[in-house]
Design goal:
This protein is mainly β. The chain contains 1 helix and 8 strands; from the N terminus they run αββββββββ. The longest helix has 7 residues, at 2-8.
Length: 171
Amino acid sequence: MLVLAAVLACSDAHALQRVQSGPTLELGVGPALGGAPARFAVGGQLSAGWWVGPYDDDYALGRFWAVAVTGRADFEVVSGDLRIAPMLEIRRGMDLFVVAPHFFLAGGPVIGLGDPQAVGATGRIGGGVKLRRTPKLGFTARLGGGVDYLGGKVSPAVGLTIGAGWSSPVR
């Protein structure tokens, strides 16, 4: 609960921190659930964005807001259908030395490349964490869920990914 309160707080920066910003990139794969009726899928995600916030890059410590373009692709194993969701994502997070939790809200179109092909919309919410191995690189885990509206049907959209992430302040 203390970490959640720290991530969501909007207080001023500490003495060692100054406002910084920079690029962020994440890539992950994992299981998913979606479609109507809901079916198991294997998914992948790629996110590229920009973060800003009071940050101390010597200690990797600070809160941040980020905007990212996130692409998610889910392949339904049994039916062979493919769903692609290019989304705009807003994140709020905090780097805590080696652990960086964040929460996100995302939305955008969803494209079904099954039979029949269709275009709809998706909205998702979730959270993730990065375990830093270096000041810029780390392992990531994300869990997100929401709804897809595709082909006149509303269906669940749940995805878990494990992967890698990179971020760095611009100097």
